Amino acid sequence: MATFLYRVGRMAFRRRWYVALVWAAVLAAVGLGALKAPGASDEEFSMPGIESQKALDLMEQRFPGASADGATARVVFVAPNGQKVTAAENKKAVEAALAELADGTQVASAVDPFQAQAVSKDGTTAYSTVTYKVGANDLTDASRTHLEQTIDEARDAGLTVEAGGTAMEDGGGAGGLAEVIGIAVAAVVLLITFGSLAAAGLPLLTAVIGVGVSMATILALSDALGLSTTTGTLAMMLGLAVGIDYALFVVSRYREERARGRAPREATALAVGTAGSAVVFAGLTVVIALAGLAVVGIPMLTKMGLAAAGAVVVAVLIALTLVPALLGFWPNAVLRRRARKSGQVEESTENNGGTRWARFVLRRPIPVLLLGVVGLGALAVPMTSLQLGMPGDEAKPTSTTERRAYDALAEGFGPGFNGPLTIVVDAKGDSDPKGAAEAIAKEIGGTEGVVSVSPARFNEAGDTAVFQAVPSTAPTDEKTKDLVTTIRGERSGIESETGATFEVTGSTALNIDISDKVQAALVPYLVVVVGLAIVLLLVVFRSLLVPLKAALGFLLSVLAALGAVVLVFQQGHGAEILGVEQTGPIMSLMPIFLVGIVFGLAMDYEVFLVSRMREAYVHGERPEQAVTSGFRHSARVVVAAALIMIAVFAGFIGESDSMIKMIGFGLATAVLLDAFVVRMAIVPAVLALLGDKAWWLPKWLDRTLPRVDVEGEGLTRGADAEPDAPAEAADLEVARP
Prior knowledge:
With 737 residues, the protein is of the alpha+beta class. The chain has helices at 2-14, 16-36, 51-62, 88-102, 141-156, 175-194, 197-225, 231-259, 264-291, 299-329, 337-342, 353-363, 365-380, 401-413, 433-445, 478-489, 491-498, 507-541, 545-570, 590-618, 623-650, 658-690, 699-704, 713-721, and strands at residues 72-78, 107-110, 125-132, 160-164, 388-389, 421-426, 450-453, 457-458, 464-471, 501-505, 586-587. The chain folds into four domains: 1-36 and 195-347, Multidrug efflux transporter AcrB transmembrane domain (Multidrug efflux transporter AcrB transmembrane fold); 71-168, Alpha-Beta Plaits (2-Layer Sandwich), CATH 3.30.70.100; 365-400 and 520-707, Multidrug efflux transporter AcrB transmembrane fold (Up-down Bundle), CATH 1.20.1640; 420-505, Alpha-Beta Plaits (2-Layer Sandwich), CATH 3.30.70. Strands 6, 7, 8, 9 and 10 form a five-stranded antiparallel β-sheet that branches.
């Protein structure tokens, strides 16, 4: 591996013009493909294997065309205090607003609440469902403006008017600001780390190019592969983060080799052969974690994982080819300014902060280990009360009209109105389909916790009915989950009496089923991902205990991060500081996202940091010296990489969307805990206690595992034999600052 990558780095340095032109051609080709490709569609979320999805599929089959994909807006009208919305003046204002809404160019229909009986019992609240001819992403700015202006006019008439629904979604795009913040912080961190504008700019430049290639490829293939508009979100986030990190490690190793007196081309080749090997294996762990998302069984999540894995592969290729090519163009520009001016590139790393920290841990391994483990364990305790769900408008800030519309409907029609249960009755083959549907509706309506049941609606064939049951509790309430379980539990008795079958679906039941399936998939996912990564780390480190320690450390950090998420977003501790106005269940996919993404990044730090310790140990240093050497060479760079990751993820905490805020907080917290507590404290403490045993491997396993020279032992041995070998003219180029 190291020898092959050494040759790749040397070739990229020598053939830098060709390498640069190839990447420019790739970027242009995929960019052109993205411009000419049909736009990405709004992929319908599906979860094969759960009851809610089966019921939705049955509705799609028996009610063709009924589930139109047009955007909707639920406009809520509330009368002034002490008045009713049915009063003549207020009713006139509502009807005027509806007439104006129906006049929109993209509007298909606007339901009259007075005819549809969509008025609360106390007469204070009414709502209208506005349906559009196109999906939310295809709504024009003019249509959105028309909706907002109509709402404002109705407010001017004295009514309180709010709106929710898919038509109110602005299509996202908030992540752009988060990425800009992440890049800005990354630039500052890189500048402080390297002390050179060129050295700071090179990782940023190559990362942006990598993200450009990845995103353009995803857009170009979106129609052919059925990718949605949200598929590239994770790819952009991870592609940027790992792209910066991987280039950072190669550039850092290049500067180190130059400090040893190597000529530029030799230093580049050695950097790619050693740090590049770590980049390859770190990238593989991330790819394994992302591709493993397929285990969960959610098509959309699988596509997101594979797209992000592709972005990571591009980042690895960029670090191994384009980075050394750019170093060939400006071999001295990435050095410190003093080194460029004086011509002396030696940099002393003997007593840097990494060395001092390592010596501190080595002197006190047991207290450091206990403090780290106990601290993470305590932070993980709230994880035991984790409640999964899919927060909706109730989790949005009260400053949004969607949240106010949700609250108005809950107050006027009851807390369960925002999440009714949809019952799909399959009476095909039954002698009396209508009688069976009425009997099922009566049984469900009599269940404790159900406040009302709507009249059944039949398909044209008359063999399938759909009606809604409104719970007495809110969609995310645990009592609502118990109600769904109760209805399904009584199904066998009801079906035996009526001869027809039924299934429960709707957004509330769907969210409950998704949460249950994700929880059931979490353990198999962990087993697959952690198991494959342990095998990979066995090959990298040729040690039995180091991979096990790496996996256990990751479990500690991810559980602690989940505990922190529960502490803030579910229990509300410190929620006001982050702008979380409404606490509730944790997003169902959050644990899977957290485990998949953080596991890959955690193994990055493990490979980059411990591979330098392994390299020193293989070269003859004692275990304690090897730990110190690893920190002396890698600590500063690993810290910089972690800070960049934290900056990229923390940028999303400032977004108004609670789910984006939750993901950003969870990922930033997990990286913080894993990098600074696990990798920088617990890992050296464990290695100090294990000594030589840390690198022990049974002989039979040693013979079985393939040998991969990740440390570049053969390269450094050969290079050290002739450290002052004459350099070629190309290697002696001096780039002007």
